[in-house]
Amino acid sequence: MMSTAHFIQIFTFFLITATVLSSSAPSGFSIDLFQRRSNNTHELGSSPYADTVFDSYGYLMKLQIGTPPVEIEAILGTGSEIMWTNCLPCSNCVKPSGTVVFDPSKSSTYKERICDGKSCPYEMAYSNKSYTKGTFATETIRIKSTSGKPYVMPGTTFGCSHNSSVDFKTVPSGIVGLNWGSFSLLSQMGEDMLGLMSYCFSGERGTSKLNFGSNAIVSGDGTVAANMLRKKEAYSMYYLNLDAVSVGKVRVETLGTPFHATNGNIFIDSGTTYTYLPDSYCNKVRAAVENVVKAERVAAPDNMLCYRTTNMDLFPVITMHFQGGADLVLDKYNTFIINNGKFICLIIFCRPRAVFGNRAQNNFLVGYDTSSQLVSFKPTNCSALWS
Ligand SMILES: *[C@@H]1O[C@H](CO)[C@@H](O)[C@H](O)[C@H]1NC(C)=O
Ligand SMILES: *[C@@H]1O[C@H](CO)[C@@H](O)[C@H](O)[C@H]1NC(C)=O
Ligand SMILES: *[C@@H]1O[C@H](CO)[C@@H](O)[C@H](O)[C@H]1NC(C)=O
Ligand SMILES: *[C@@H]1O[C@H](CO)[C@@H](O)[C@H](O)[C@H]1NC(C)=O
């Protein structure tokens, strides 16, 4: 048996806890929310977007920070709020070669945020023991726009991280939070964007786009939508209700499991690779897969459900049924992985917290609409879309 690391690559970046370490703001992000820009350089009829790149296991967003602008690549996280980047001086930052570490002293627009007359330290913890610690600051952020001119966001609040530990084997400089908390990049864009964003991940190396505003509306043939729920206690994740999972023709209902009793039982995250379901329900889905697949089971790390075969035809089509009417018929690529050219494994894992990860979203144009509270999915060949 080999180690999980050789077996598959996992990336889990959703926020677990966040603290502002300032007496005026003992918990959560209660520091003053400034008026959002109504006067951006945003031109009517144009939409901002960022180029994204797929880097072995995660999707990174390109943006520019500071004056003069420095380009960074950061994990695109719809399960996170605050944007942060590694900053100098960095007492402890993981720096694989090629990672850009932002130097605030070289930027004329960098400003520390002040809470209580002092600087405003924060700590955030992500899944799998990743964390960032630093101070809140404001900076000018730039992304692209369909007008051809950059979309400029002066005074954007972000975390200047001086101590982080993140399992980056690649080159990201930080994380861009895109959930619906008030400090996410989407929220900081203001009402012009109508709380709209969309992406289309292909799982192939190459560039794609994260769209905001009117260009992020997902509609047309094949589009389905799931209801999005907001929960106060849970860091502004985009929650959905998963009603059932069909394994081939067998529909496995969540009804009757503790999983069903939770309103908003799963959240969708662009920063998590695979999909997680809680044990009570997950085991039913696994059992349904085991009933269908006629191949030799093999022991695998992390209790993965693996078979010694490379014949995908032996595996069932999995459909996820979300409340609101989104029945997502997933490609086998979305739910199974070929490991070491010898095994096929199910990439739905049993974990306490349910997450709908990016691999399962591959080849859907996914649109978030916080004002209508819907997540739309449109089956799309994402590689073809951006080429
Ligand atoms: C927005 O821009 C207009 C025109 O340039 C200006 O008169 C107004 O004061 C600006 N408002 C804000 C909030 O900056
Ligand atoms: C960074 O934070 C970790 C975790 O809290 C701590 O153990 C470590 O001492 C810190 N490192 C530095 C250099 O401050
Ligand atoms: C958590 O991190 C460890 C060590 O970096 C890694 O081996 C493991 O695969 C990670 N697990 C998950 C679920 O991300
Ligand atoms: C998707 O588009 C790419 C690029 O145009 C093409 O190479 C590929 O064959 C398409 N895939 C499918 C399943 O149509």
From TrEMBL:
| Alphabetic keyword roster | Aspartyl protease, Glycoprotein, Hydrolase, Protease, Secreted, Signal
What are the recorded Gene Ontology BP terms?
A: proteolysis
Listed Pfam families? TAXi_C, TAXi_N
Instruction: Write down the InterPro entries for this protein, in alphabetical order.
Output: Pepsin-like_plant, PEPTIDASE_A1, Peptidase_aspartic_dom_sf, Plant_Aspart_Prot_A1, TAXi_C, TAXi_N
* Entry-linked CDD domains: pepsin_A_like_plant
Q: List the signal peptide residues.
A: 1-22
- Annotated GO MF terms: aspartic-type endopeptidase activity
Family, similarity comment: Belongs to the peptidase A1 family.
**Name of protein:** Peptidase A1 domain-containing protein
Its source organism is: Eruca vesicaria subsp. sativa
